[in-house]
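Practice problem 4.
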């Protein structure tokens, strides 16, 4: 695995990871923004694929920079990562916020996103999402420890969390207690509330997979159905359980869906060549 840094136009220093060999698969994580979100999936994906991941600006080992935070800016950071690694185009998979970033990449630079897999994502926030994020923003300011603890209950399937209390304890221990940490989370949630690509998705021609879980409390299944309906020819697949973080709680099932779709994309690329 190669670890690298690059600097964006506004001065953010972004940490990236590059591993494996084969067609390029860029993996973009959710609100937490860390490359490590994909750790449970890495062994299953790097066989036959070159994986790129990153800590998003202001998260993990990446610095904030000066640009205003928006989903479009986060997409631009990902395109800059492709530039720095000399990659013209690739397949993009994004979970939650990462799925929104993938959409913004495809809209801004359609020739660079050959296909995209969107898990736990949405095209625009409906009232459910707006009310939920408004509640979480209030918790973030009033009681950041409760914000962190509630994130565990909202994100993970209950039966899985009951067997992994270390995850809950780690989230509680790393709650965003200081103003700077809270500002990073707040601006990211506000960016998501402002995100709306719904009018642009019909123009996209890249193959798309939409994956959701029927018990997702953060991005419920009706938003997956709506997203798939806006994307021409999108394939929609739903897990029965897994919570919002189903790539973590239901890794085997998630990978089976993603790998089958990736195999199809690789086969289609060979036929085109």
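Answer key:
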């Amino acid at each position: 695995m190669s670890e690298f840094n690059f600097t964006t136009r506004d001065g953010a220093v972004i940490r990236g990871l590059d591993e494996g060999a084969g067609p390029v698969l860029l993996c973009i994580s959710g609100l937490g923004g860390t490359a490590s979100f994909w750790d449970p999936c890495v062994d299953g994906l790097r066989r036959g694929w070159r994986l790129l991941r990153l800590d998003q600006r202001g998260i993990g080992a990446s610095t904030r920079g000066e640009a205003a935070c928006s989903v479009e800016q986060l997409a631009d950071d990902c395109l800059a990562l492709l530039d720095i690694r000399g990659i013209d185009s690739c397949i993009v998979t994004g979970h939650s916020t990462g799925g929104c970033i993938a959409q913004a990449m495809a809209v801004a630079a359609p020739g660079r996103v050959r296909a995209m897999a969107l898990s736990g994502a949405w095209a625009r926030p409906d009232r459910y999402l707006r009310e939920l994020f408004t509640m979480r923003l209030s918790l973030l300011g009033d009681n950041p420890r409760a914000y962190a603890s509630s994130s565990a209950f909202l994100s993970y399937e209950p039966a899985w969390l009951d067997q992994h209390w270390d995850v809950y304890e780690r989230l509680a221990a790393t709650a965003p207690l200081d103003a700077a940490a809270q500002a990073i989370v707040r601006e990211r949630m506000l960016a998501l509330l402002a995100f709306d690509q719904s009018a642009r998705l019909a123009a996209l021609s890249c193959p798309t997979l939409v994956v959701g879980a029927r018990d997702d409390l953060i991005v419920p299944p009706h938003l997956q159905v709506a997203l798939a309906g806006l994307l021409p020819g999108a394939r929609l697949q739903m897990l029965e359980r897994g919570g919002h973080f189903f790539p973590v709680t239901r890794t085997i099932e998630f990978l089976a869906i993603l790998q089958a779709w990736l195999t199809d994309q690789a086969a289609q690329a060979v036929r085109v060549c």
